[in-house]
Structure formats: C-alpha cells, structure tokens
Amino acid sequence: MYTHLRRFFTIALIAATCVFNLPARADEPTQHETDKVAQAVNEEEHKIEHKLEEHEAKFNIGEMIMHHIADSHEWEFSHGVSLPLPVILYSEDRGLEVFLSSNFHNEHHEYNGYHLVHGESEQIVPVDEARKIYDFSITKNVASMLISAVILILVFTSVAGWYKNSKGKAPKGFASAMEVIILFIRDEVVKPNVGPKYEKYLPYLLTLFFFILINNIMGLLPGSANLTGNIAVTMTLAVLTFIIVHLNANGNYYKHLLSPPGVPGPLLLIMIPVEIVGVFMKPFSLMVRLFANITAGHIILLSLFGLIFIFQSFVIAPVISLFALFLNFIEIMVAFIQAFIFTLLSSMYIGTAIEEHSHDHGHH
Amino acid sequence: MSLLTPNPGLIFWMLVVFLLVVFILSKFAWKPILKGLKDRENEIQGALDLAEKTRAEMAQLKSDNEKLIAEANAIRDQILRDAKDASDRTIAESKDKAAVEAQKIIESARETIRNEQAVAVSKIKKEVATLSLEIAEKVLHRELEDKGAQEKLIADLASSARLN
To answer: What pairs with residue A123 in β-bridges?
Structure first.
C-alpha cells in the first residue's frame, strides 16, 4: 500500500514539474513564432465556440422550456411575433419611468440607461450599477393576470345579474353551469371544513378557487403565461391564506400552539418548535404544491414538444403529439384538482384556526 | 434557480389585482349569487314544508271526516232502531187495544143477543100463551059443536105444538 502511494506521488510530482516547466521552456524560442501559434489556437477555439453557439442556437431544449415558463417583459405569441408590454420602473433618483418594452429591441438590449438581461429569466438592470431600481412592469404574467381578472369579473357579475333578474326561477344556461361549481365549493369544500361560520370566508375561498382555476386553464393555452406556475403568485396566495387564518384564529388555536395539551413538560421543548414550524409549513406547502404541479406539467408538455424538434422525424412527431394530447387532458384535470386542493386546504386551515372546542382537549 | 425566486414586482401586482378581484367579486358577484341560492333553497324548503303540512292537514281532515261519517252512521242506526222500537211498541199497543176493544164489542154483542133472546123468548112465551089460550078457546068452541071433530083438532094441535 505504502509503495503504491509513494509511486503515485512521485509520478504526480514529475508530471507537475513538466507542466509548469513547459511554458517556461516555450518562451525561450522567438516571440514571433509563439504569437503566431497562439493566434492560430485562438482562432481554432473561436471556431469551435462559434460552432457550439450555432449548434445551441439551433435548438436548446432547456433554454426553450425555461423561456416558456419564465416571466417576460413582452408577450411572445410565436417566434418574432410579440406584443410589447409597458415597463414601469421606480428609482429614487429618477422617480417613476414608464416606457414600452419594444424600446429594448436593439443590438445591445439597452434603453435610457437600462439593460434588459436575458438570462434564465428576463431582468432589467441599470447600466450604472450603483443605482437601485424597482421593477413594477406589466409583464406577461401581470398582463395575463389582468385578463383573467377581467374575465372573472365579467363572468361572475353577469351570473349575479341573472340571479338578480330572475328571482324564483329555475336555474338556466350559463348561470346553472357556474352554480354547480359554486355549490360544490360551498357545500363540499367550505361548509364541512370551515364550520358554522363559513359564510364569512366563502367570498375569499370562492374567488381563490376560480382565480386559480381560470389561470391554470389559461396557462394551458398555447402562447399564454404560466401564472399559477410562478412562485411569486402562489406565494402571494399562500400568504393571504396565512394572514386570514392568523387574523381570525381564536385563543384556543394560539393556546394549542404554545402549550399543546396532554404533552409532558420536557417534550414541550421539542413540540413547541415543531408546532411553530408547522404553522409556516402550511402556507409553504400550499405555495410549493401549486407552483410545482403547474410548472411540472408545463415542463413535461414542453419537453415532449421539444423531442419533436430534437428528433426531427416524421415518425416520432405523431406519436409524441398523441402523447402530448393525452398529457394535455391530464393537465386540464390537474388544473381543476390543484384549484380544488388549494381551496380545500385553505378552508381546512381556516377551519382548524377558528374551531371552537369547549369539550375535552384529548383529540387532535 | 430564477424559477424559485419570487419577483417583487409580480407580488405587488398579484396582491393589488387579487385583492381587487376578491373585493369586486364579493360585492357584485358572490353576494347576490349566494343570496339567490340561499333564497331559492329557503323557498324550496318552505314549499316542501308547506306540502308536508298540507299533507298532514289532509290526513287529519280525512280522519276527521271518517270519524264524522262513523258518528253519523251510528246516530242514524240509533234513530232507526229507536223508530223501529217505537213503531213496534205502537203496533203492539194498538193490537192490544184493538183486542180489548174487540172483546168488549163481542161482549156487548153477546149481551145484546142474550137480551134479544130473552126478549124473544118472553115474546114467544107470551105468544105461545096467547096461542094456547086461542087454541083452548077454539077447542072449547069446537067441543061445543062436534065431539069427533074436537078430538081430531086436539090431536092436530098437539102435533103442531110438539113441532114448536
């Protein structure tokens, strides 16, 4: 064993001296020659790099997928056909600045002292790095969110109009279709989980369900934004649920948190941190579940379509298309299921926080 | 990793838009829709309750009616029975009375007959006495004229007297 090691070190030492001595010895001949060689090597390297770049420019599936699921400052419907969206920046020295994202369409992606960086996701950075800016742009996701908000408001105010105008009539048409879902959410999701005071939380939970549902489904349309697969959106929703839960929680809930009944003293040292982690785990799981499900669905679909471009074969394309069609149906199901689960878990969290139990504290 | 870093601008817009949607929908959509649904449910429940109540009332009415009919039948039967009894009694009474009356009439008729008989007997007796006296007178008369003839006459008279 020892001899092996020794031999290894000796060889390593010799190799190292050779490597370090090489450039020193190469310097010795005329400067001219070495420059030429270096230039040639550089040129070769450039060529290889260029080739690699070209190859990458042809098709890079990872880049394509990231480009599709990330947010953007313009709405690209297909390659080269895009709708510029307003960029809104706030900085302390310049105040509010509003301009169209199409201004970045130049060689350096630069406008008015700002630089649009195309990394994994798009980002606007000031050229002067000392400045700090806040980006409130109407990005593709924000635009999609606004469209979904308008659709939601139009749809449900028109449904509400039907209820106002035809009192005492049997449900009919679109109103009855929505009614089925509303009743399902009210009777199967909210009522049994929130408890007798469910009516107070019903508007929030109904909006939550339909907002997630419509954005899940809109996200499946070609060329659309991936709103519910964006962590900022799911985080906002989860935090709102968290705030509602903890604003309305009763004393019982907080008491259980700080002194879980039936737990012996020494165990409290472990239990209380666990309970407190649990409190933050709930919204965190809400956030990650929706984000991961929707993003994963999009990645799978995009990977399948990417395969068509990688293989570039007439035999593969129909097979993959069929498979993608099948997955699309699954994604529609997932859109409903995830909206349902988010609403269900939100109502369960609210329900446990406002639950009155005057009887024994033995069960959880 | 950019996927996992929330963008503050998007959070801002998300908060603004989502809270606005919650507010607008709560006020202009969920309130009337949920109220409409609740009203309709109450209406349906009310109608069902009313139907149940009406059915109970109908059942009550039916049983009341049946009871009334049974009572009326009982009363009718009673009345009929009473009437029959009364008529029976009347008939029996009048029969008795008639029998008594008839007895009386028969009795009086017998009395009359007896009286008439007695009168007739006494009359006959008187007649017979008168007739005997006449016969005796006539006999006596004839005796005075012819002896044979007298005897014959007496024989005749005697035979005729036996017939009486």
So the answer is: A117
B17-29 CB burial, b ≥16 within 10 A, e <16? bbeebbebbbeeb
> What six digits make up the tokens of B32?
């009337």
Cβ–Cβ < 8 Å for B37, A256: no
| A228/B contact by beta carbon, under 8 A | no
Distance CA A74, CA A82 (A): 6
CA distance B164 to B161: 5
Which of A88, A123, A156 is the mutation pick for testing B, counting most B CBs within 10 A? A156
Q: Give how far Cα B77 sits from Cα of A78, B65, B90, B103, Å.
A: 100, 18, 20, 38
Chain B within 8 Å of A156 (Cβ-Cβ)? yes
Six-digit token string for A88: 């809104």
Q: Which amino acid is at A255?
A: K
Cα angle B2, B8, B12 (rounded to 5 degrees) comes to: 140
Tokens, residue A56 = 């990458």
Q: What is the mean pLDDT of each run of 10 residues along chain A (364 residues)?
A: 58 55 46 68 71 63 82 81 87 85 82 80 81 88 94 93 80 85 93 90 94 94 88 94 92 82 79 89 94 93 89 87 93 95 95 75 46
Please give the ipTM for the structure prediction.
0.78
Alpha helices in chain A (DSSP H): 2-26, 31-58, 61-69, 140-165, 173-184, 191-194, 202-220, 231-248, 251-258, 265-311, 316-354
Instruction: Record the tokens describing residue A132, joined without a space.
Output: 């700090």
Query: CA–CA separation, B113 vs B108, rounded Å?
Result: 8
Residue from A100, A125, A102 nearest A115 by CA: A125
Hey, are the CB atoms on A231 and B34 less than 8 Å from each other?
A: no
Q: What is the pTM of this model?
A: 0.70
